[in-house]
Every structure is written in structure tokens, then in C-alpha cells.
Design a protein that fits this description.
Number of strands of chain A: 2
Helix content of chain A: over 70%
Low-confidence stretches of chain A: none
Structural class of chain B: mainly alpha
Strand order of the largest sheet of chain B: 1-2
Radius of gyration of chain B: 22 Å
Order of helices and strands of chain B: HHEEHHHHHHHHHHHHHEHHHHEHH
Largest sheet of chain A: 2 strands, antiparallel
Strand content of chain B: under 5%
Oligomer: heterodimer
Order of helices and strands of chain A: HHEEHHHHHHHHHHHHHHHHHH
Strand content of chain A: under 5%
Distance between the termini of chain A: 31 Å
Mean pLDDT of chain B: 90
């Protein structure tokens, strides 16, 4: 009997990246990118399928998990769940990139993106701080290049530089934090770090505390949460729209995947709080700051893409609730973190979809401001309907996937006793309806004149897939939330 | 599964209509809307439910299965009909088809989107009236907002953007308030004594008494009162109960006629339906304690809406404000807690749905021809469009409560019920005050008709004013026939309504 290695989904992503690079180096001047897109989509689809199969089939991976490579890597429900999410976003973005970068050399972009996705998948599996750092860099370095991919575009280059500078700084902070943790606990493996926390840190508590804080800084950068969010509006706005979609959905989720595992497994809340390192409190404060800042800043924007960038910061604030609501006594830790994971999955569809619509608008040559979207509903009904669904879903309006994921997240926080946090989140969520509906109003209620050339097939296909995901995640939310909560609960066992 | 089939079909129909070319969308939309209509009529003939859905009655066409678990509560797909929801489901399907046909003349841009949205709204309304699990119900409840928001915002009059946003913000904030109230009551108050949020289970747990525990420092009774008020205010916006009605005239005046028909005919009933299901069925004790306040609000809506209607010059505004007035009767009938009162109120929901739909549609047909709705701009229309005017006059008499028309039956039952109510203090006084509203209704309707319809024809227009086309008049005629049929034979619905509300009442004869 042949058994597939547990890391198959990650391997598939990496192999796809190599296949893309190989093809691109053999036929570097090929102007037709359909083969590249095909490789990228099929490879991601295979990874998605394998991850889904491992999750649902009776492999024991979802419940038990398995450690590999001297415990440096672990494959369990959570890593498979997130890998599926990353692969799904990669499929959407690959399709969109086919039309968006018409004529340019897309081989490099696909290669970089698939390498980054491989890194994300590894981030979700990392069981050691060393693996975590390597995976984080494997995500970051291609991302910088992707943001600056439009070499002749000043906005793109500027965004890439800003992203790189802040990214390099936060990587340094992260790795410094890792070294402090190592100094305090004597290990880089998360279970051993946890054991050191459990058995008491003595006079090394201070070092460990600073280390935890700095490690948190690394995650906050990746998830674009306060106070490491400054790069996000610039990078998302300047980057090519499909890359913005990729960063704001997949990259953000990867940051959370790593944060969930490192904090829950590595720094067990009971022992950490006992030692005075109350990271749940830290995340409560940051969750509030992030969602308030993201939403209020989004409400004042004049450009759609920048508004989406700030809204993406706001959503990082909601997901932080998944960490903020964890406490040593509660029995609901798995539920609320599972809800946060489910929200990231729904977000992966609706937010990617919204950015892809922006990509479509840029492709058509429509401007960037809200007014420039006037009348798009009458001219391109399908795309506008999809965008409307994404925006209402982002706002958490009931008939769409975003409603249930927010509901479960908030319900989990209420159960954990964080009433005040939920009240703030609900107020923010209501406010978000204001700025999301500005786009809807512009598209449907206003009149506008555009000269729109055609309907790019691949971009439309990506929009359609994202739309189906956003809509189907309402009736199909049951299995998603159950899988996510089971996977999250397993972490606390 | 018939309910699910119809809802699913209507969603697909909406999608199909959305995608067909504009030229054929009107025919396609109307044809597809016949399927849910025939389906609901078939359900009417096959209806075998008895008792109230929320108090352990037998449901017709029941479906129930688990969907997912939320914080320990099972969320279910749970649908079924009782004598309260069946008439509303039939009304929804009936009015949607007629409203779609009435849109053929006025809607001349982006037709496929328009008819697609109408069908999308119908699907959600059917879901909302049949759902018996809170979450499923809430999803449908909210989902009806979106199509109406677009219908007003895209095809509306000059101030459509303002009206659409106002409608959306008012009803959305109201929904949030109601949601918080209900969730506090169930999650907080009932806690572990229920394991689903199925409306029957919640209602029975609440009515069993003693199940509610204190929550967030609120004693059980205070919690029930707070939840009642949050839900009541949330639903009152939708009804609308004065003074929460201010979104309604804007929405109605700006909305295209078919959307107005659906708004007045069905969407307003969502508010009173939900009040009946939630406030008056789940928390009857609290309702009784607040009876004087609620009855006063009802009577106030009746009089205030009528006086406002009296002051209007725009025919559509007159009908819009008179809706506020008519829905006041429904509130009065519900709070009476008598068999006649609650049954009359439920019947009045149907009757008013038909009559206000008829009035909006007739005003719309006149507007299609004259391009004005201002009372002062025209006179003597009876000369030029006799059939339309004849139906409008008949509808207006129905509004005034002419015997043998549906409005009479509803209002008569409400007055009898509220007069004898032992729940409302000084019930005869409130009843008398509300009855006075009828006089004002007669006043403004007769006055407006006299000025516009009779006398020598005059209209400052450089276009031909003649009889309306057949497909404009036919829905009017059908509606009028329905109004008369229900007036002559109220038992078509009244029997099942009385059967369904019987477990709820106990406040007098």
C-alpha cells in the first residue's frame, strides 16, 4: 500500500512553483501565459484537493496530527485547513493574473506566488520557531517582489520598497524575539518551549516576556494589525490589484495561522498568565485598536482600493478576537479560534473577490475613486453583482457567508465573557456598512459613462468562483465551522 | 419539501430572469412567478395544519433537519405553515405576480435586473414567512431588505438615493435592535433550558414560565421587558408604528409603483407578523403589562397617519400615510388578546395587503398616463380612463371599510375584539378613538377623488390622456375581485386564522 506523505499539499505547491519556473526558463519569451496559468491553477487545485481529502477522509490527521522532521513540522487539522485556504486564494489570483498582466512576463509572478504559498502552508505547519522564521521569510521575500512587480509603475515600486523596509524591520524584531525565547526556555520547538513555561521560568520571565512581545510583533506585521499596519494601505494600493488580493487574504491568514499555533501551543495561556505574560490581554487591546483604526480610516477614504486596504486592517481586528478570547479557564477556546479560522476562510473568498473586482476595474481603465465606479452596475451587471455580494458579505449582512462567520466569532467571544469587545466589534461592523455601501451606491444608483472593453474571461471566472464561495458558504457553513472548530480544539488538547 | 421546492425555484427564477435580455424579461418574470403562485395556491387547498405553529400545533408541509451548531445551540432548517403564515404566503405570491405585470408599463430600463430582484425578494419573503428557526428566519428577514434597497435606489424617483439609504438604515438598525433583544432573551435568559433556536421551542420554553434566569445583572422580569421592548421597537419600525414611520413616505413616494405595491402589501406585514410571533406569542405577559402603551401607540398611529394623509397633495403620499393608519388597526387588534381582535388583525394584514396594493397600483396606472400625481394638477379623469378610475373608487371604498369588501371584515373584527378586550384598560375608549380614524380616511379619500376624478377634464399636458392598456388594468381588476371575494367570504382565510390564534388569546370575548 502506498501512503502519501502528510505534507503532500505543501509539496504539491512547491513542485508547482518549480514546474512554473522550469517552464518559464525553457520558454522565457512565450507571450501566451495560458500554460503557466494552467500549471498554477492545476497545481493549486491538486493541493487544495489533497488538503481537503486529508481533512475529511479518515486519516486521523484532523484530530490527532502528526509530527515530522524531528518535530520541526506538524501536520494537523489546522495546517490542512489553512493550506486549503491558501490554495483556494492562489487559484483565484492565478486566474486573475492571467488577464491583469496582459503581455508581461507572468512566469516570474506565478513562480513567486507559488513559492510564497508554499511558505504559507509551511507557516501553518511550523512546530518550531526556526521553521516558523524560515517559512515567514519564504513568504515575505517573494511578496516584496510581487508588490513591486510593475517595474515601470512608480506606485508599485514605491509600495514594494515601503513593504520591504517595514517587513525587514519586523522580521528582525521577530527573530530577535525568537532568540530571547530560546534564551529563556532553551528550545525552539514549541512543545519544549511550552514545557519550559509550564515548569516555571524563574528569573528568566522578563526575557521571555520581551520575547513573546517581539514574536507578536512579527505576526502583527504579517496580519497587518496595529501597530504594524502602516505598510498595508500603501502596499495594497500601490501593488497590482491581484497581488493586493493575495496579500490581504492569503498572507494575512498565514500570519494568523502561525500566531494561533505559536501562542496556543508554544506559550500556553495558563502558564504564561501565571508568569505575568498575559498575551490574551495584549490581543484584546490590539483587537480593539485594529478594528477601530481600520474601520474609521476606511470610512474616510476616497479611493476604493485604499478603502479595501483599511477594511482589511479592520478585519484583522475581528480575527484577533480569536486570540483575545482565549483564557485558561474557558472551555470555549477551540470554538472561538475555530470561528476565527472560518472567518478567515470566508474572508479569503469575499475579500479576494473584492480586490479582483478592483483588478477588473483597473483592467478596464476605470479610475480608482468611488465616483469612477458610477454606473458600472448598468454596464457590467454580472461583475457588479459579484462585487455587491462581496461588499455586503464583508459588512456581515445576513444573506451572505460573512454574516455567519462574524456571528460565530462574536458568539464565541460573548461566551468567553468579552461583552465589551463584542459591542465594539458590532459597532465597527455596522459602521463598515457605510463605506462598503458607498461602492454599491456608486455602481448601481449613479449614472456613469465608461468605455469598457470586453469581459476578460479568466478574471470573470475568478470572480465567479469567489462569488460561488461567498454565497455557498452561507448554507455550507456547517461543515466549515465544524472542521475549523475541531481543528482548533485539537490545539488546546 | 414543497416549501423548499418553491423557495428554491423562485431563487433560480430570479437568476434566470436576471440573465435574460431586457426585451423579454417582463414576460419571463411574470411567467416564472406563476409557479410559486400556483404552488402556494395548491398548498392552500391541501392545508392540513391546525393550532398555532409556536404553541405545539400541527404544521402543514413541515421540514426539519439540522444545519450546524452555534455555541451549543442547534441551528436547523425548519419550515412549516400554520393558519397565520399560510395566508401571508399566498398573499406574497399573489401580489408578486400582479406587481410584476403592473411593472410592464412604468419600468423601461434594466428590466431583467428589475424583475430578477422582484423574484429574489419573493423568494426571501416566502422563506421568511415559512421559516420557524430563528437563524433561518433572520437570514430571510434581512435578505428582503437588499432587493427593496436596490428597487428604490435604481428605479425610484428624483430623491431615490436618499429614500433608499433612509429605508436601509432605518430597517437595518431596527433589525439589529431586535436581534440583540432576542439573543439576550434566549442565550442569556433561557440559557441551557433550550437546545435549539427553533421558534416553537423558544416560545414554549418562555411560556412554560420560570425558565428565564437573570442575565447581565438584569432580573428575569426586567430582562423579558428589555427584550420585549427591543423586539417591539425593531418590528415597529417595519410596520411602521408612528412615530417610527418617517422612512415610509420617502420610500413609497420614491419607489417605483411595483416596489410600492410589495412594500405596502407584504413588507409592512413582516413587522406585524413578527410582532405576533415574537412579542405577543412568546412574551404575552409583558405585552399585557404594556397593553395601555401599545394600544395607545396603535390608536395614535391610526389618527396621526390619517391626519397626515389629509394634509398631502400627492396621491401616492396619501396612500402611503393611510398605510400607517391601517397598520395601527392591526396593532390595536393584536394587543386586544381576544379571538376577534387577533384574528381580525391577522385578517386585516391580508386585507390591507390587497387593498393598499390595489390603491398603489391604481395611482401608478394614473401616473403612467398623466405623469403627475399631484391632486391639484388634474381633474375629471373619470372621463378619460373610466375603468381605472372605477376600480380606484371601489378600492378607496374598500379602504374606508365598505361592507362586503375585505377591509370591512378585518376592521370590524378588530373593533369588536378590542372593544371587549380585558387586557387593554378602558378598551372602549381606545376603540372609539381608533374608529374615528375611519371618518378621517373617508374624508381624505373622498376629497382627493372628488378633486382628481370628477368634474370637467383638465390637465396641463401636451400628451394624449386615454384609457390605460389592458395589462395595466387587468392586475387591478384581479385585485379588486380578490378584495371582494375575501369580503364576501372571509372564511376563506378566517377559519384557519382563528384556529391558529386560538391558543394565544384569553383577554376577553
Amino acid at each position: 500500500m502506498v501512503t502519501a506523505p502528510p505534507l503532500t499539499p505543501t509539496f504539491l505547491l512547491g513542485l508547482t512553483a518549480l514546474a512554473v519556473l522550469l517552464y518559464d526558463s525553457v520558454w522565457p519569451d512565450s507571450s501566451d501565459a495560458s500554460v503557466l496559468t494552467g500549471i498554477s491553477v492545476v497545481g493549486s487545485l491538486a493541493s487544495l484537493g489533497t488538503a481537503g481529502w486529508f481533512l475529511t477522509a479518515d486519516t486521523g490527521l484532523a484530530a490527532e496530527g502528526i509530527s515530522l522532521y524531528a518535530d520541526a513540522v506538524v501536520v494537523d487539522g489546522m495546517s490542512l485547513f489553512f493550506t486549503a485556504l491558501f490554495a483556494a486564494v492562489t487559484i483565484l489570483v492565478s486566474l486573475a493574473a492571467y488577464d491583469y498582466f496582459g503581455g508581461g512576463n507572468r512566469g516570474e509572478l506565478y513562480g513567486l506566488m507559488l513559492l510564497a504559498t508554499t511558505g504559507m502552508s509551511l507557516m501553518a505547519s511550523a512546530n518550531s520557531l526556526a521553521t516558523a522564521f524560515v517559512a515567514l521569510e519564504l513568504v515575505s521575500l517573494p511578496s516584496y517582489a510581487m508588490v513591486a512587480f510593475l517595474k515601470d509603475d512608480r506606485g508599485s515600486s514605491e509600495a514594494g520598497l515601503k513593504y520591504f523596509l517595514i517587513g525587514a524591520l519586523s522580521s528582525a524584531i521577530f527573530v530577535f524575539g525568537v532568540s530571547l525565547i530560546y534564551g529563556a526556555t532553551g528550545s525552539l520547538l514549541l512543545p519544549d518551549v511550552a514545557a519550559a513555561f509550564e515548569s516555571g521560568l524563574g528569573d528568566r520571565t522578563g526575557i521571555a516576556g520581551v520575547g513573546v512581545l517581539m514574536v507578536a510583533g512579527g505576526f502583527l506585521f504579517k496580519t497587518a494589525a496595529v501597530p504594524f499596519h502602516f505598510w498595508a494601505p500603501e502596499a495594497y494600493e500601490g501593488a497590482p490589484a491581484p497581488v493586493s488580493a493575495y496579500l490581504s487574504s492569503a498572507s494575512k491568514a498565514a500570519g494568523f495561522a502561525l500566531a494561533f499555533r505559536v501562542f496556543v501551543v508554544g506559550f500556553p495561556i495558563g502558564a504564561a498568565t501565571g508568569a505575568g505574560i498575559d498575551w490574551a490581554l495584549l490581543f484584546q487591546i490590539l483587537a480593539v485598536a485594529t478594528m477601530v483604526l481600520g474601520n474609521f480610516a476606511a470610512a474616510t477614504q476616497e479611493k476604493v482600493k485604499r478603502m479595501l486596504a483599511y477594511s482589511s486592517i479592520g478585519h484583522a481586528g475581528y480575527v484577533l478576537i480569536g486570540l483575545a478570547a482565549i483564557s485558561a479557564e474557558a472551555t470555549t477556546n477551540g470554538d472561538v479560534m475555530g470561528a476565527a479560522m472560518a472567518h478567515l476562510l470566508v474572508y479569503g473568498f469575499m475579500n479576494t473577490g473584492a480586490f479582483l473586482f478592483v483588478a477588473l476595474a483597473e483592467n478596464w481603465g476605470v479610475g480608482r475613486r468611488f465616483e469612477d465606479y458610477n454606473g458600472l452596475g448598468a454596464e457590467k451587471p454580472f461583475a457588479a453583482v459579484a462585487m455587491t455580494a462581496f461588499l455586503f458579505s464583508l459588512a456581515g449582512v445576513p444573506p451572505l457567508g460573512g454574516f455567519f462567520s462574524k456571528l460565530f466569532l462574536f458568539a464565541g467571544a460573548v461566551e468567553a465573557g468579552l461583552w465589551w469587545l463584542v459591542v465594539i466589534a458590532v459597532i465597527n461592523s455596522s459602521l463598515s456598512l457605510y463605506y462598503y455601501s458607498r461602492v454599491v451606491r456608486a455602481m448601481w444608483f449613479e449614472e456613469g459613462e465608461h468605455d469598457l472593453a470586453g469581459a476578460p474571461t479568466a478574471l470573470y471566472a475568478a470572480l465567479a468562483i469567489a462569488l460561488v464561495g461567498t454565497v455557498l458558504l452561507l448554507p455550507g457553513f456547517g461543515p466549515v465551522i465544524e472542521t475549523a472548530q475541531e481543528a482548533a480544539t485539537a490545539l488546546f488538547a | 419539501m414543497i416549501i423548499e421546492t418553491l423557495i428554491g425555484f423562485t431563487f433560480v427564477a430570479a437568476l434566470v430572469t436576471f440573465l435574460v435580455p431586457d426585451e423579454v424579461a417582463n414576460r419571463v418574470g411574470a411567467a416564472l412567478s406563476l409557479v410559486p403562485l400556483v404552488g402556494t395556491l395548491w398548498m392552500w387547498t391541501q392545508f392540513d395544519g391546525s393550532g398555532n405553529a409556536l404553541t405545539g400545533g400541527t404544521l402543514a408541509f413541515e421540514t426539519q433537519f439540522d444545519l450546524l451548531t452555534l455555541s451549543g445551540y442547534q441551528v436547523q432548517w425548519f419550515t412549516g405553515l400554520d393558519g397565520i403564515s399560510l395566508p401571508l404566503v399566498v398573499l406574497t405570491a399573489f401580489l408578486t405576480t400582479l406587481a410584476i405585470v403592473s411593472a410592464w408599463t412604468p419600468i423601461d430600463t434594466r428590466q431583467s435586473q428589475f424583475y430578477g430582484l422582484m423574484l429574489f425578494m419573493e423568494a426571501n419573503l416566502l422563506g421568511m414567512f415559512t421559516a420557524l428557526d430563528f437563524f433561518v428566519w433572520f437570514v430571510f428577514w434581512e435578505a428582503t431588505l437588499l432587493p427593496m434597497y436596490f428597487l428604490i435606489g435604481v428605479w425610484g424617483g428624483p430623491r431615490r438615493k436618499y429614500a433608499a439609504i433612509k429605508f436601509f438604515v432605518y430597517t437595518n438598525v431596527a433589525s439589529l435592535l431586535m436581534f440583540v433583544g432576542f439573543v439576550a432573551l434566549t442565550f442569556g435568559g433561557l440559557g441551557d433550558s433550550i437546545d435549539t433556536l427553533a421558534l416553537p421551542e423558544v416560545a414554549m420554553a418562555l411560556n412554560a414560565g420560570g425558565n428565564v434566569s437573570s442575565f447581565m445583572g438584569l432580573a428575569p422580569d426586567t430582562l423579558k421587558l428589555a427584550a420585549f421592548l427591543a423586539m417591539f421597537v425593531g418590528f415597529a419600525v417595519k410596520v411602521p408604528v408612528a412615530p417610527l414611520h418617517t422612512w415610509l413616505p420617502d420610500a413609497h413616494v420614491e419607489a417605483p409603483t411595483p416596489a410600492s405595491v410589495m412594500l405596502a402589501g407584504v413588507l409592512l406585514k413582516m413587522g406585524t407578523y413578527a410582532m405576533l410571533r415574537f412579542n405577543f406569542t412568546m412574551l404575552p405577559d409583558v405585552a399585557s403589562d404594556l397593553a395601555i402603551l401599545i394600544a395607545a401607540l396603535g390608536a395614535f398611529s391610526v389618527i396621526y397617519g390619517a391626519i397626515l394623509a389629509l394634509a398631502q397633495e400627492d396621491l401616492k403620499r396619501i396612500v402611503a400615510y393611510s398605510s400607517v393608519s391601517s397598520m395601527g388597526y392591526v396593532l390595536l387588534g393584536l394587543i386586544a388578546f381576544t379571538e376577534f381582535g387577533v384574528a381580525g388583525a391577522t385578517f386585516q394584514m391580508i386585507a390591507h395587503g390587497l387593498i393598499s396594493g390595489l390603491m398603489f397600483m391604481a395611482v401608478g396606472v394614473i401616473y403612467n398616463t398623466t405623469h403627475t400625481r399631484m391632486v391639484g394638477d388634474m381633474s375629471g379623469l373619470a372621463d378619460r380612463m373610466p375603468v381605472t378610475v372605477g376600480i380606484l373608487i371601489a378600492g378607496a371604498f374598500g379602504y374606508m371599510g365598505l361592507p362586503l369588501m375585505a377591509g370591512f371584515a378585518g376592521e370590524y373584527f378588530i373593533f369588536v375584539g378590542s372593544f371587549h378586550s380585558t387586557v387593554i384598560p378602558s378598551a372602549p375608549l381606545f376603540t372609539a378613538a381608533a374608529m374615528f380614524g375611519i371618518v378621517i380616511v373617508a374624508g381624505y379619500l373622498l376629497l382627493a377623488m372628488q378633486r382628481t376624478l370628477f368634474g370637467p377634464f383638465s390637465l396641463d399636458a401636451d400628451y394624449e390622456v386615454g384609457p390605460a392598456p389592458f395589462h395595466d388594468v387587468a392586475p387591478l381588476a384581479v385585485l379588486l375581485l380578490a378584495v371582494i371575494a375575501l369580503g364576501v367570504a372571509p372564511d376563506l382565510f378566517l377559519d384557519m386564522i382563528q384556529n391558529a390564534i386560538a391558543p394565544l388569546v384569553g383577554g376577553g370575548a
